[in-house]
Design brief:
Number of strands: 9
Structural class: alpha+beta
Number of helices: 13
Order of helices and strands: HEEEHEEHEHHHHHHHHHEEEH
Helix content: 40-55%
CATH topology of the largest domain: Conserved hypothetical protein from pyrococcus furiosus pfu- 392566-001, ParB domain
Mean pLDDT: 80
CATH architecture of the largest domain: Alpha-Beta Complex
Low-confidence stretches: 1-40, 317-321
Number of domains: 3
Largest sheet: 6 strands, mixed
Distance between the termini: 26 Å
Amino acid sequence: MGVSEAMDLAAKAHQPSLSGRSPLPAFKPFTPEPAEAGAQSAKPTAEGGRDIRQISLDLIEENPYAPREVYAPEVLRERADSLRANGQYDVIHVIPHPEKPDRFMIADGWTRVTACRVHKVLDTLAAQVHHDLSPLQAGWMGYNQNESREQHCDLDRAFFFDKMYAQGMTQSEVAKKTGISQTQLSFYTAFRKLPEETLQIIRINPGRFPAYIAQNLAKVARKVSEDKASSLASIFSSNGQSVNWMINQCSLLLEKEPRSPQKQKIGKVFRYSNGVLRQKGLQFDLSIEIDEADQDEFNKALDQLLNKFGKHPAPAAPEVAPQE
């Protein structure tokens, strides 16, 4: 199994009773005239200025920049059951395939496409065709849609960001596009450093493993053993231990012997014309005013410093999920 295959999370079927979100009005897709039945994607219908079509699933292909890649069987089964019972709530989003005339590439909705294919639910899906997006831009559209779904996890984000880096984007550019600081982005790189066995465990229950847990496991794999990292991941995934338990277990393994209590150091104060830095023992308190013209450079330097010395930022709170 390659590292790229570790992106195995799909959003669960949208359930209005759980999210509190009412179903959209029944969608009325374009129905071709009988003489045009073999050309389901050829004729669009205008809906609010959008190009909406009923497209055969056989004409839709994957996007190499998709924010998700592999989908768990139980997720596909849930989505198939939802589509079979309730129909299609939202249109999927596609772009014309850049290399294959009369075919399409997915932007958002691949879970539904795959569920319909695997479980033979529908032969066509209502889709909005975006004519002004490249495959890379379509990938970002899918990412942004997934960010509003509660099942989007750090494992998905990590390997999507790696795809963007491979296309030449810098960490600073990804930070501006996502609103995630460079310090936090650095934690996502831990997933690619994990051994394959640990990644396979995370794939089963990826929502349990935020990026800072992956970073701790990567340290255990590197400094202790890969077997220890996989064993911890397996226990944490299946037995429901708390995040604090996981972090403490990693810390115990990383410390060969308990740290001896450190003597309290005499405090120091460093004064500057625009602020002050106070050190008391192991604690540093900084209060400084930065000119507007220097703020970008200061933020970059601060990100680099925190990236080196900061520890596991808190995970973001989950959000309610629309249908994918």
